Model the fold of this input.
Amino acid sequence: MNGYGVAHDAEYPDHSGYLWHLTSNRNPLSPVEFGSQNRNVRGTTARHRLISILTQATGPQIWCSHLHYMTPQFHNLHTPIRCVCFTECIPSSLAIHARRFSRWGLLFSKSTAYLNGARPVWYMDDVLMNRFAQCHAPSQRGNLSVLPFPEEYLHLLMPFVPEYGLRRMGGRTLDFSVEREWRARGDFNFTRDQLAAIIVPTEDDINPFVNENPMCHNLNFIVAEELHHTEIKHWDFNHFFRQI
Done:
């Protein structure tokens, strides 16, 4: 232990020193007009979108997305709430999460993500969410006796309405706490030397990916297929790093 808290995540088998961001085959959550640049949709497959992230002319960049599940009160803001999302989980869990997204993505160390502005989200029930929303409702601002909650932190709010709770949000539950999500406000810019690894579906995907994208030579790769049958003992992602 060093001061307060836990000194080394490796001592805990359900923690990782890394965060991942998986690309998706689904349509983007944010319209292309959200950005100040002329943003074309980054291809139609998770692989194409991953390549686009790595090959931006101004340097690697993950575009931010609109938080579509925020309660309607927050939608009155002049600036839409947009961020880039990451997930903390051990390797065997990534294989499960990949079913919702894809097996293509990027892996960052927690320290890199933190220094680039990413922070853990705050899971809160609908009562707390509504209290924060009221701080930003135009009709309420004149009646506030305290300063409103700063807009630059709204991207960290995450509704938490579990099935075992007493309340529902719009008649449904909402619980993504298993993702241990982190978020960075706005676009996430990084350099290739800050990238811990590139995530690909199978071993056979590595060489074609490097041949098509020579800038990825000497970078680490994670093969998602190898994570399915990981032993219960704590192996973090660096145990699976490959380099071409």
